[in-house]
Every structure is written in C-alpha cells, then in structure tokens.
C-alpha cells in the first residue's frame, strides 16, 4: 500500500454514512473521499464533515467522476484537492504533502 509506504496511517471507511462518526471520534489530519459511495455520497459527506469540524479538516476527493457538474460541485465546497482516477501513487502522495503543508501553514 503506497500510503503506508509513505508513512501515512490511512483508515478505510467504505460507506459515506460512516465518515461522520469516525471524524467525531478520531479527527484525522486529512480526509480522502470518493464521491461515489454507498449510503451517503462523498459530496454530502464532505458538506457534513465541513459543518461539523468548522472546516478544520482538509478534504481531498479521489474519484473516477470527472464531469463538469461533479467537479463544479466539489469546487463550490472549496475542498483542498480533487484527483481523478486512475492516478499514479506519486501524484496522490505529492497532493497529500501539498495539502498538509498548506494546512499547517495556516
């Protein structure tokens, strides 16, 4: 797993409705969200996380969806990043580093 190899400790949550309880219990440094998740889509999960955390946790979408409507919905949320699958692991790692460094600087 390329994230663990880069010294990150990811937690996999496969359903959108599981994101909020996890964030409430264990606030992460960064959230990577797919848009197309069961129970609650990633856009709705991001909105709720942002409301709950007062936008204190950066969110990056990683998704195969790249239509204009979806991308605009993500941009309207002002998330920290958006990566389209398929992707190269080095790109994900560099985006994570960029977002965390920028977030810590603020």
Provide an overview of this structure:
This protein has 106 residues and is mainly alpha-helical. Helices cover 47% and strands 11% of the residues. Strands 1-2-3 form a three-stranded parallel beta sheet, sandwiched between helices. Strand 1, helix 3 and strand 2 form a beta-alpha-beta unit. Helix 2 packs parallel to helix 3. The longest helix is centred in the last third of the chain and has 17 residues. It starts with a helix and ends with a helix.
Mind sketching the topology for me?
Elements: H1 2-5, H2 19-25, E1 31-33, H3 42-53, E2 59-63, H4 68-77, E3 81-84, H5 89-105
Parallel strand pairs: 1-2, 2-3
Class by helix and strand content? Answer: mainly alpha
What is the CA-based Rg, rounded? 13 Å
What is the H/E string?
Answer: HHEHEHEH
Described by the principal axes of the CA atoms, the overall outline is globular
Mean pLDDT: 92
Largest sheet, in brief, is: 3 strands, parallel
* Share of helical residues: 40-55%
Q: Number of DSSP strands?
A: 3
Number of helices: 5
N→C terminal distance: 30 Å
Strand content: 5-15%
Uncertain segments are none
Strand order of the largest sheet: 1-2-3
């Amino acid at each position: 797993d390329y994230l663990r190899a880069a010294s990150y400790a990811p937690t996999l949550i496969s359903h959108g409705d599981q994101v909020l309880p996890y964030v409430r219990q264990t606030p992460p440094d960064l959230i990577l969200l797919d848009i197309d998740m069961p129970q609650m889509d990633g856009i709705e999960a991001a909105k709720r996380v942002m409301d709950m955390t007062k936008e204190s946790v950066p969110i990056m979408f990683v998704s195969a969806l790249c239509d204009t409507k979806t991308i605009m919905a993500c941009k309207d949320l002002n998330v920290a990043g958006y990566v389209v699958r398929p992707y190269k692991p080095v790109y994900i790692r560099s985006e994570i580093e960029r977002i965390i460094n920028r977030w810590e600087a603020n």
